[in-house]
Amino acid sequence: MRRLIENRFGLLALVLVALGALYGVAHVSRPTPVAQARPQAVRAPVESVTAVCPAPSANRVSVVTPADPERAQTAGSATLTPMKAAEGKSGEDDVIDRVGLLWQRDIAPGGGPLVVDATGSMAAGLESAQTARETSGTQRGLAGVRCVEPGAESWFVGPGPAAAEMTLYLANPDSAPASVSFMVYSGEGPVLSERGTGVVVKPGEHRVIRLRDLAPSPLIMALQVSTRSGRVAAAVKAVLGEGRGVDWLPVAAAPATRVVVPGIPGTAGKRELYVATPGERDTVVRIKAVLEDGSYALKNKETIEVPAGSASSLDLSTGIGGQPAALVLESDVPIVAGLKITGTGARQDVAFTAGAASVDLGSVVADGRAEGKQTSWLVLSAPFAAATVEVRLLPTKGAAPAPVEVTLPAARTKELRLTPPKGSKGGFGVLVRPKPGSGPVYGGRVLDEAARDGQLVTAQPLAMARIWALVPPTIDAPGVVLP
What we know:
The protein contains 3 helices and 35 strands.
């Protein structure tokens, strides 16, 4: 019996030794596994663009698509179509198919929003804008706005309905209805509840809403326009009253802990900063100005306190007035920001800029001018690292002039006066494209006009050009087909 047990354990030991040897040989002879490369996003050219000019009546509409030597030219065109009015009437379409040349037209009074649809070679980089000029009345001033793409969320920061006549323009160029809600953050806190402010904008429909009817009390505000379903193009116009100015609020960058407000011109006049904290925590926002001679905190204006769910303002006239600038705002919680620029003279005009993204893929401005006493300026800033950009003007006809290279040292701002190309009758587009290896660039275009009774002014922060889109990678995943 003892021998049998010993043989059993001996046999087991031999089996274990054999298995160990077998697996050892298999491990040594196994081929090295091939490293799997992580899928990367793919840069694809934009093939279709839709934008809405919110109220082009009695405005000059500008549309331009820069030529891109890096991509093959394909057939395409841009169509400008008036949205149908309530009675079902609409005007004739305009068709544009000239890549690299600026198209401009003065739109007759009357009518609703204008939809810009572009495909093929006319889509990549297309930019459009509307600009009005009035010399008297409550609308006196220059008032310009980018024609905006429909989206799911937009932010606006500026004066409130108690300080100006604030009007919200909504348009739905899509084929599906959009369920839209609003939220206003004032100096006293949230004013509107999403549950009580929803509207449905049907396909092809547009709405004009007086914000005073929704929230009459705020002197300053941040407005959030969002959709539960569908998309909507949103724009906000501010009319401050007789002799006090008029302009559109640009769409502000979404809430973030670091916001750059670019495109502040080097002219005299009041500069008022607006900051809102839509979250549930109070915050102290740190402020730095990026000027021609460097970047630093402004004396006695290094910070601004913003209570949770509210908006605050700060007069920066003695800090950045008369200097081209950008502002870098940092906070421990997400914020949105904008700035009011007031012109000089007995009768004032205003312009607005707002938090914006860096123009890593380039930026296009549709409406540049230098006719009569009007002057166009480009204000560029490199707040974090040295940058180099190429600036090219796009004429209304003829060949574009050679681009100009602009070098921006780190933490510096530069202001460039734009002179129209030969052959252009005052109007031109602008293409700003960072050079390879450049640091982040932020900027804005400022249009002003010297008038006897006071300066006219409008501003537009540079937006990322719609030239390329980053398409996310695709992977094999059972969740795609499993319930």
